[in-house]
Amino acid sequence: MIRIEGQPILTAAEMRAAEDAVITTGVPVETLMDRAGTAIAHAVRRLAGSNDVLILCGPGNNGGDGYVAARVLAEMGVTVRVAALSEPRTDAAKAARAGWHGPVETLADANPAPILVDALFGTGLSRPLDACATPTPNTPPAEAGVQLGNAIDESPGSPNWTPASAGEGTIVGRLHFLANAAQLKIAIDLPSGLATDSGQALSTPPVFDLTLALGALKPAHLLQPAARYCGQIRLLDIGVPATSQAEVLATPILPTPGPDSHKYTRGMVAIIAGTMSGAADLAALAAMRAGAGYVTLLGDSHGPPHALVRTPFSVHALANDRIGALVIGPGLGRDDTARTRLDAALRSGHPLIIDGDALRLIDPDRIKALSVPVILTPHAGEFDALFGKSDADKITRARDAAAFANAVVVFKGADTVIAAPDGRVRIAPGSSDWLSTAGTGDVLAGAIGAMLAAGLDPLDAAGAGVWLHGDAARRLGAAFIADDLADALRCARAAL
User: Fold this and answer.
1) What is the pLDDT of residues 71-115, one digit of tens each?
2) pTM recorded for the entire structure
3) Is 258 annotated as ligand-binding?
4) Residue 291 zone, left/alpha/beta (φ > 0; ψ -120 to 50; rest)
């Protein structure tokens, strides 16, 4: 099992193309399935201990992986059972089913086991699970949905009732029933019911403890709402080379001070304050804690830390050629003064981090006309206001916006997507839900400012800031405030 940091992310079509490229070299699809099932079996064996295992197999190749895993687990001496939604449909899955010599129960009749493995549907699902019920060869179509319906009492108040089983069909209800009774829940490639590329939940699966991604990460492992159902994610190597411009955000490699370092070589960050000076204060503190050598706040602000240099805003103050990154937007306001300060920032010639209110006062054409590196840090509402609403997935939206504005875009949220104009994308793995509090975005802007001032490539600077921000939040646990988060950046940086 491989950790996911820095690993490529492939869409369903890209994954199929990667597998096809291997197949054209003479490796049959059955061999790839055997590799996947064997890798699954070894991972499950490590986690299951002496517990019994129940593997749920669907009609496609995901189910075929499950049959192979069952066979290998049985050969290892593990007590394993298989329950199928229907007979296999693909040739490879049929061959895998033929290699399993144990009984195959119906999903409707299967009893729970301590270890549940979901191999019903993985990559490529395009419809809700309730629409995927397939009758067995001897089952009249009119009775196909009754088999599962009779197997579980879905009335409110019954022991097996869940909100999902009440309204989303018998397959989902049965999956919840078996998952609720399991001690450990493992999904193969993706929890059944998730859209691979968009991260949509086509149905509501159980929340799994672990998802074993086959060959490469998929967008749904990281995009919400799908990611919340995956639990921990680990990658299994199945011998399919995977390359992509999209990757999981990795731990950054950051410059550290040396004997000849001084405050300016470590990077100078300037932050423009506005009507809510506290937001600019947070950004300034974050830049300092993230490692900037010199931070100056331009505007009205008072109080600690005393290491922060406070200067009245002026065009002259912006003319300092030592400024390595200029942050504008946190608490800026949207009045005439804010517009004047934004105009001055855009004319300053300094690399820019544009956040918060400044994103509401600018348009993509003005950003595109700039000749300096620019990093935009919108949350969903700011993104919609700047680039327009769309039904496209978050990766596509961020990538298109970055290309259109010729800027790095940090599309914030529980599934932060960082995109560069050249198409490169980094996606941050799950962040702390406690970041949903005022001021944490200001902290992120300051952290990114410190990274940009230190000389990092804009995409790397944005990624490093997002990583430090997320690591600081994980260190704090629950119920922190933005001030705590800014302080915790020091520990996050020191841990690298």
Assistant:
1) 999 999 999 999 999 999 999 999 999 999 999 999 999 999 999
2) 0.91
3) no
4) left
